[in-house]
Design brief:
mainly alpha, 3 helices, elongated, Chorismate mutase, Chorismate_II_sf
């Protein structure tokens, strides 16, 4: 099991750095954000396809057990904020035509 993220710990402040190092860090963060966005978009596509398959098979669109397991994984890793992230991901993943999936 992965080691929990140090929830609530303040980020370490690096020593004096050059502008180039700061630009490099900003560039890496931007690249990481793009990767996260791409992975979230992929997850949304997969989840919506899975929901359609379940519906076609006559099953409930989502599995509450699977959603709860996801919530527990995120909460175990990142605490309450992780559970909030998981809830946001689940909301993004809901089919647009599903009742209760409209944006607030």
């Amino acid at each position: 099991m992965p080691e929990p993220f140090p929830h609530g710990d303040a980020p370490r402040v690096p020593g004096p750095s050059t502008e180039a190092a700061a630009d490099q860090a900003a560039s890496e963060l931007s690249a990481l954000d793009e990767q996260l966005i791409a992975q979230l978009a992929r997850r949304v596509r997969l989840a919506r396809g899975h929901q359609l398959s379940r519906r076609a098979a006559g099953l409930p669109t989502t599995s509450l057990a699977q959603e709860n397991a996801m919530l527990r994984r995120y909460a175990a890793r990142f605490g309450n904020q992780g559970a909030e992230i998981a809830l946001a991901i689940l909301e993004l993943s809901r089919s647009p035509d599903r009742p209760g999936s409209e944006r607030r």
